[in-house]
Amino acid sequence: MQVIDTELADVKILEPKVFKDERGFFFESFNQLKFAQAIGRDVVFVQDNHSRSSKGVLRGLHYQTARPQDKLVRVLRGEVFDVVVDLRHGSPTWGRWEGHLLSEQNKRQLWIPGGFAHGFLAMSEDAEVAYKVTEYWYPEHERTLLWRDPDLAIVWPLTGQVLCSPKDELGGLFADFDVSNFSY
């Protein structure tokens, strides 16, 4: 596995070694020991999530104010533009965002530690995303940043109409983000 540091502190791209031949391919999608070495600490995943989205569906930018979730995200089918925003006040990359293409072709995984808002845009006709999390979902702690917040100025590769949930369409602004009510 190749570990690629990103411009955001502690976010990493994990690129597996893929073995291909005329039968298809094989790769290790998760190995606890190698993963801990890659990110520099042990984690325990408590839940696996799987979503399917049609082209133009945008999910996020989600985070939890307490009991944050570390996430290991990968695409099983299709392609997404995956975005993270650093919400860790005091971090050298606080308030910055970064986007990465994750696809069934590149088989890359994105490690997102707690303290980041996360979302993605489905770029292919259908996209299936699987992710492991280190904490359960607590609806009372869930919040959403507005995906089109002018202060964040995220450059989404939009090619048509965006479809969001009502919750995501009503996300809060980064300027109103309350650092005193946020733990990571």
Structure description:
The chain is mostly beta strands and 184 residues long. It has a single domain (2-181), classed as Jelly Rolls (Sandwich). It has helices at 32-39, 166-169; strands at 2-5, 12-15, 19-21, 24-26, 47-54, 58-64, 71-77, 79-86, 97-103, 109-112, 116-122, 126-133, 142-144. The protein has a six-stranded antiparallel sheet, with no helix packed on it. Strands 9-8-11-6-13 form a five-stranded antiparallel sheet, with no helix packed on it. A hairpin with a 6-residue loop joins strand 1 (2-5) and strand 2 (12-15). It is globular. The mean pLDDT is 96.
Uncertain parts: none
Radius of gyration: 16 Å
User: What structural class do you assign from the helix and strand content?
Assistant: mainly beta
Strand content: 35-45%
Instruction: Tell the overall outline.
Output: globular
CATH superfamily: Jelly Rolls
Rounded to the nearest angstrom, the distance between the terminal CA atoms is 27 Å
Q: How many E strands?
A: 13
Number of domains: 1
